[in-house]
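Review form for a predicted model. The reviewer records the input and the model, then writes brief findings.
Reviewer: anonymous (R2)
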Amino acid sequence: MPIRPYEAKDRDAVRYICLNSDGPCEADEMGQHFLLTTYCDYYIEREPHNCFVFADEEDRAVGYILCTEDFANFRKVFYSDFKTRIDPARTAEHKWAEESIVPHAQHSADFPAHLHIDLLPDYQGKGIGTQLMNTLFAHLRNKKCRGIMLTVFRHNTGAVRFYERYGFDRIGENTNNIVFGKLL
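Model under review:
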């Protein structure tokens, strides 16, 4: 089953994976909209050239790795996109989205790129995440990207172990998240 560059035909599958990588999504419609706006849509709409999917036998995406290679550009575009897509009255979501990228801003000099990686549950624990990381890192090295980072919920112990095994270093922490970085 191949890893290949993201294509427009993968949009619905990638959005589904974003919402269901931890099992069926229980968020309401607005919650789902928030999750997609924050963790998925920017990447596949604005930087599809930095996104890769793992496809099943029928060439349907069942996992992905999404990336922005330049935090400064991401911040400008993400905020304007977010403000137009999420109701301004939903102040908690606006605050949470702004806080979610604070670690990226703090570490962007050394780690200008950041990523999101997800697989549907049936495909987790099979080495696919490592293959997706290898693909993205080769891509970013070819682009002369200095480093990459990500944040993960502190209580997601499986993901924390995965990033540590892959060679990421802990570069920051807060109450809810661990910030990992890796120089390329």
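Findings: Strands lie at 3-5, 52-55, 61-68, 113-119, 147-153, 169-173, 177-183.
Further findings: Residues 3-98+113-145 form a domain with the Aminopeptidase fold (CATH 3.40.630.30).
Recommendation: see findings above.
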